[in-house]
Amino acid sequence: MQTTPATQTYRLVLSTSIGDVREDAASGQKAFFAGRQFGAGEVLSSFVAEEVCVNPSYLTVQLGDKHHIMLKPAYLQYINHSCNPNCFFDTTNLTVVALRDIAYDEELTFFYPSSEWDMSQPFVCNCRSQQCLGMIRGAKHLSDQQANEYHLNLYIVDKRNLEG
To answer: What is the C-alpha R_g of the chain?
Structure first.
């Protein structure tokens, strides 16, 4: 068991070349923590499609209108949402990229609407960042101002321009 400064206790689930998947002892929620420092713009990992789905799920990343993928390596699914993310799923190059410097043992997070147009399971965000949007439903539901504050994948940018 490991305790963080926020008094959460985690159990190690999986150790990988880029970090550790841990489970919160109280909630059972899994999260991915950096195993080393990463610099802004650095590629943390590449990924491919383990499975291609027509419909979204809470575990898929969207590449097109009816093209949602389950991630391989599967441990990337434990990169949770934040309205102040430190990484980005680049669906053009199939890489996870650091948006800013990431410290050792920092939780890895990305902005779910950066790769999801209309989420299958919207949720109330509890990231507690100053820019928290509250309800997370997908890029379709972002205002232009909100969308302009985030790094969005090419599919989402194109879709926003078409739906305009």
So the answer is: 15
Residues 120-131: tens digit of each pLDDT: 999 999 898 999
State the architecture of 38-163 in CATH terms.
Answer: Beta Complex (2.170)
The predicted-structure confidence for 102-142, as pLDDT tens digits, reads as follows: 999 999 999 999 999 999 999 999 898 999 999 999 999 99
Please report, for the chain, the start and end positions of each structural domain, with discontinuous segments joined by +: 38-163
Q: 7 is written with which tokens? A: 């008094």
Sheet of 2-3, strand order: 2-3, 9-15, 19-24, 30-34
pTM of the full structure? 0.91
125 contact partners, CB below 8 Å, separation of at least 6: 81, 83, 132, 133, 134, 135, 136
User: Is the Cα dihedral 46, 48, 54, 56 positive or negative?
Assistant: negative
